[in-house]
UniProtKB/TrEMBL annotation:
Keywords: ATP-binding, Kinase, Membrane, Nucleotide-binding, Phosphoprotein, Transferase, Transmembrane, Transmembrane helix, Two-component regulatory system. PANTHER family: SENSOR HISTIDINE KINASE YKOH, SENSOR PROTEIN QSEC. This is histidine kinase. It comes from Modicisalibacter xianhensis. It catalyses: ATP + protein L-histidine = ADP + protein N-phospho-L-histidine. The lineage of its organism: Bacteria, Pseudomonadati, Pseudomonadota, Gammaproteobacteria, Oceanospirillales. Its EC number is 2.7.13.3.
Amino acid sequence: MSLRARLLWTLGLTLTLLWGVTAVWLLRDLHQQVEHTLDQRLAQSARMVAGLVSQLPDDVWQQAEHRRLSIPAIKGLACQVNSPSGEIIAQTHADLDGVLTPRQTGHSYRTEDGVKWRVFTYQHDDLTITTADRVEERNILLTDVLMAATVPFLFALTGSLAALWLGILRGLHPLSRLKQALAQRHPEALAPIEIPDLPAELRPLVATLNALLGRVQQAFVREQRFTNDAAHELRTPLTAIKTHLQVASRQHGEASRFALTQAEKGVSRLQGTLEQLLMLARLENGLDDAWQTHCLARSAAMDALLMLGEEAQVTFTITWPDETLYLPAPHELVVTALRNLLENAHRFSPDPGSVQVSFNQSGSGLAIEIRDQGPGVSDQDLPRLAERFWRHGTGHGSGLGLAIVSAIAERFSGRLSFAHNTPHGLVAQLWFPLVEERHRAEQPDVAWGTPVAPH
C-alpha cells in the first residue's frame, strides 16, 4: 500500500470514527433534551390549565355539574379536568377516556386504538388535570430536529474528508517531485539533488541522500585514482623486469646473473609499491574491524624500529616516551607510520646517531619528532613532501611512504608536518591526540617485540 493510500485510510477512518462517535453522542443528548423539553411543555400545559380553571367563577362549576365544559383542541395535544369526585368537568377529546382517565400523577405512556400517547397527570386544589401528547407527533418533531442537526454534520464530514484528501495530495507533492527528480537522473549522475522549496521534514532526507551520493562519488574517485596510480607506477618496474629477464635469457655467466639480480630488485620494488598502494586503499576505504582501536606509543615505536633491522638502528638516538601513553589508532598503522618516517630519515641521514627521535607530550597530545642531518629540501618543496608519488630529486622509493603517514594521521585526528632542521636536514613531526584515562582499560594488551636499547 502506498504512503498516500495509507494516510488516506488511516486519517480518513480515524476522522470518520471520531466524528461518528461525537455525532452519536450529540444526537443522543439532543434526543434526550427534546424529550425532556416536550415533557416540560406537557407539564406546563397542565399547570396552565390548572391556573385558568382556578380563576373561573363558582357559577361556572355549578353549571358544569349538569354538563361538561368543552376546551378547544390542539392538534396532537389532549386535556381533561376531573373534579374531586372523579367527574369530568372539562375536556378536549371525548373519545380518549382510556388515555385521559386520571391515574398516578406524573408522566406515563398510554395506548388507545393503537395510538401511543405521552400522558401527564397533575393535581391542583382537589382538581385533577390530565394532558397528553401523541407520540407520533413527538417522533415527527424529533426526526425534524435530528435531520436539521445531521445534514450539517454529514456536509462537514464530507468536506473534511475532501479537504483531507486534497491536503494529503498537496502535502505529498514534494515526495512526487523528489521521485520524479530521481527517476529523471542519469544512472551515473552523482551530483547533489537540488529541489527548491522542500518542506522541513524532507530536507534531512535529501541532505542524507546527497551525503550518500558524495561518499559514493568519493569512492569512485578513490577507485579511479587507485587504478590510475597503479597503472602509472607499475608500468615502469614491469618494463624493467621484462627487459632484465630478456637480457638474462640471451646472456650467460656474469651478465645473466646481473640481469636476474636487477629483475629481482624490480620485483621487490614492485611488491613494495603494491603494498603501499593497498595500504592507501585500506585507509581511504575503511579500516579492518579486527584492528584494535588503541595502542601504546612506546611499543609501536619499538616495533617500528625492529622492522628496520640492526644495521639501521644505530642511526637513531631515541628519547623514549612514558610507558602509559596511548594513541587512538591501531598498533599496526602507528607502526607503519613510524617505520616510514624512520626509514625516510635513515635513507638521507645514515650516519650513526645522526637522527634524533623524541616523544614530547603537550596537553592532550603526543608529538613524535624525527630530526635528521640529511640534505633537506627547499622552501618550495617542503609543502610537497606528503604528496603522492612526489620524490625529492632522483630519490628511490615509490613516493607513497609519507603520503601514507599523512593519511594515517588524518584518519585518527592527527597531523603530519615538516620543518627545516638547523643547520641542515629535516624535522618531521607526527602528532596524535592521547587517549583519555577512562578509555585505556578497554584496550587489551598485545604481544610486543623485544625492546631495542636506545643509542
